[in-house]
Amino acid sequence: MAKTKKIDEEQLSGKPPPLPVGQRLLENGCITQAQLDETLDECKRNDQEAYLIGHLLVEKGLITQSELLNCLFQQFTMERVAYQLESNVPAKIRFKGVEKSFDGRLVLDGLEMEIPAHKITAVIGISGGGKSVTLKHMVGLVKPDKGEVWVDDNNLAEISDKQLNTIRKRFSLLFQGGALFDSLNVYDNVAFPLKETTNLDAAEIHSRVTKALRNVNLSGIEKKFPDELSGGMQKRVALARALVIRPDIILLDEPTAGLDPIIEKAIHYLICDTFMRTRYTMVIISHAVPAIFDWCHHVIVLHQGKVRASGPSMDIKNSKDPVIRQFIKGELDGPIKFV
Ligand SMILES: Nc1ncnc2c1ncn2[C@@H]1O[C@H](COP(=O)(O)OP(=O)(O)O)[C@@H](O)[C@H]1O
Ligand SMILES: [Mg+2]
């Protein structure tokens, strides 16, 4: 299957998708070749990433936001199809028989799990099922009672504190709640991880913060404080802060919790857009079922402290497992008991 192999190699190399956004918009008849060429030139003149051409085209009024979103969605759907055909990619993070109890209650019951490298993985499961605890294991914030957590070739339990700190710097975390610092304005919130973890000078920090905010479509709000922003804007600032350090792995814990469906879609779009540009390994804990299936390559279903299913999102979405079906449909009757 030469075709599958080629896609696989492209995916493993972590390169941007074969068809750039501008080309796809052209193919879809959203813009003309002349508009594409002119806008690409403009990107070059302004020293902007060519990938951001979509944003520029929206700014210029040549395409609508939904045309851009649909275009990204098409690109990503192609990736998901390719991943469904060939999902055998190396793991970035591995859980081997991880057990964890709190106050005598078993939360993780011998968890065996692999997070594929350079893909978006969604972790789903009922509330209180141990999703956040699982995420905290990945950065060594919570340690297993039994079993091992590996990041690439590192067993987190066996490395020194110094090595663990180095590995942690490769992660970016958006905690559940995504709290911003209330006493800091947007600029200082986003700049915070750069000041903490890098030696960049003020000019470079300014440039990175400005770009990070532009990438989440929030230019010009640098001086505002968190309580002056809507819930959706706060989440986007938190996302900009998570992305500003250019990590290797991004962990997002319920990035759309408490948001309305339009903002939820916008956040999913932004996460996917960021992925297409950067190819980071991403793990998203999400309650946004079934919407999240469209925005990730891989889904892991946690149930009763174990992995109930793990595979390409398209396969899990069509799973016949009654537990998974009940969860996807949100039905009260079924194998999952609440009382
Ligand atoms: N630090 C902690 N101390 C005691 N119990 C905890 C701690 N962290 C999580 N738990 C418990 O572990 C279970 C799983 O929590 P969590 O991972 O937050 O669930 P969710 O799947 O909703 O993210 C819950 O019963 C929670 O109360
Ligand atoms: Mg949680």
Can you describe what's shown?
This protein has 339 residues and is of the alpha/beta class. Among the domains are: 2-85, no CATH class; 185-241, no CATH class. Helices cover 43% and strands 19% of the residues. It is built from 13 helices and ten strands. The strands form two sheets. The chain has a six-stranded mixed sheet with strand order 6-7-8-3-9-10, sandwiched between helices. It has a four-stranded antiparallel sheet with strand order 2-1-4-5, covered by helices on one side. α11 links the parallel β7 (249-253) and β8. α8 (186-197) packs across α9 (202-215). It starts with a helix and ends in a 10-residue tail after the last helix. The model is unreliable at 1-18 (pLDDT under 50).
Helical stretch tally? 13
- Please state the structural category: alpha/beta
- Poorly predicted tracts of residues: 1-18
Q: Which descriptor suits the 3D outline?
A: globular
Whole-angstrom Rg: 20 Å
The major beta sheet can be summarized as: 6 strands, mixed
The percentage helix is 40-55%
Q: Compute the separation of the termini in Å.
A: 50 Å
Question: How many beta-strand segments?
Answer: 10
User: Which ligands does the model contain, each kind named once?
Assistant: adenosine-5'-diphosphate, magnesium ion
Fraction in beta strands: 15-25%
What is the N-to-C succession of helices and strands? HHHHHEEEHEEHEHHHEHEEEHH
Average pLDDT, all residues: 87
| Biggest sheet, spatial arrangement of strands | 6-7-8-3-9-10
